[in-house]
Sequence to fold (518 residues):
Amino acid sequence: MGQQNNRIEGLDMLLSTYFPDRIRKAVKGIRSDYTKYLEEIRIRSGLPLMGVFSGCDYFISQEGVLLHSHESALNITAKEVNSLFLLLCEQSIYAYQDEIIRGFITLKGGHRAGICGTVVYEGNRIKAIKDISSINIRFSRQVEGCAQDIFQQLIRNRQDIYNTLILSPPGCGKTTILRDLCRLISQGLDNNRFKGLRTAVIDERSELAASFRGVPQNDLGPRTDVLDGCRKSQGIEIMLRGMAPQVIIVDELGAKEDADAIQMAWNAGVRIIATAHAFGLEDFKRRLGVGQLAAKDGFERIVLLGMENGKRWTRVISVNGDEHSGMAKDYWMSDGFFRMRSYGNENVIQACRETACAGKTHRNPT
Amino acid sequence: MSSRLAERQRALAKLIEILLNLRNQICGLGIPLFLAFENVGKEPISGVWSDIFTECGVIMQQQHIDAGEAWKMVTRKNRDSIPLEESDWQVLSDFGEMLGKSDRENQESVLDLEKENLEMLERRAAEAIKTKGRLYRNLGILSGAAVVILFL
Fold:
């Protein structure tokens, strides 16, 4: 409930700060019992205003009525898109040019505006995006507590955790789980069951902390330092040199340099929690460059996430495939995996929404 | 009259200094314009321009308007507090119009152009001190002499 209230407050702030009049009025007109399911607002030049509610698309009329058909929806002008873009950039395009090139702007509250337009190249490098044609405002939601049960499996002792790799196809909530793990590792557990550790986050795509002007918008715990917008390989080195972390957290491993940097951190006695796109452990092991990290003396715990028929499942295994789970196994699925039920349906649904791909990802993890 | 001319030149020289600071905040540090304006306004070296830049920053943030619009609003309101001439204000009226609307590289060119404009105004102000200033001083001396003669 608290998280829902926060989301509505976040929406009001976004509307009053950034949105042109007509769009603001239309979104404000949406019934509050629908607003709580609002995940995205899509604003396209010359096209109707659209909202994504729990994974379903609806067009929005001038009065805020949700429609299946676009005919009576509020049509957005190019001027409105441009005005919104300038407001999202706080009338300072140069201050956001690096983010614009990456295709999104992080907003206050950790929300994110995806941007489309005409790409301008300089050699092989994207120099700018001009003539902005579409903006997608995605509401950020931190799902506190969603990694609570996974975390229990990753504790080595009161002051140490296992090197952990979280694997899943896109859209299954890796980043959401990683964010909550970071918070738990940094914060520690009650009754001295686990002492919080100094945690460093290399937030290459600004998704974990969602920093806005240097201030993390998500709660990553009281012992967490964030290096925002930095490449993983460089970030790990910087953190090792300057911040003396006990745990380093990185999202989406992929490059050979990432693997080298992680080896460097392990040599320094620092634990790593990382994620990667993969359909399973064997799939990850076959990856050039980073696959070796899942071999012996590499990651000690593997967390597999997946989704089937819109439902989320989680599995914690060791690198040789042994099951490491004290979680309920009463909901075995046909593919041999079990769903994690213990963090509650509401949280699962929220985490599922957070990925914004819930309706689109039905890939078979095996 | 003569001191007013000197104040005018000082105000223009100060604005050139502010522009260099602004260039560092925009092109070097990438600070959003409203914050850069506020930062510049807080600097003690900003002198007579301090309130104008601070107010511009505040208005930009509160009313979500661009720098050009904020500059016009604020300078219209505070024109009397700055010792510039009408012709100076005409040149300065578009200051801010192009700020914030492009990338760092382009902003540098915009600020360079503004600096050239200001340097031109400052040169004019210096010439005015030389010509009009001498005239006003001589007129003052002559008037004084005339008064003394009348009393004699």
Chain B has a mean pLDDT of 89. The radius of gyration of chain B is 19 Å. The helical segments of chain B are 2-28, 33-42, 50-63, 67-78, 86-92, 104-151. Chain B is about 80% helix and 0% strand.
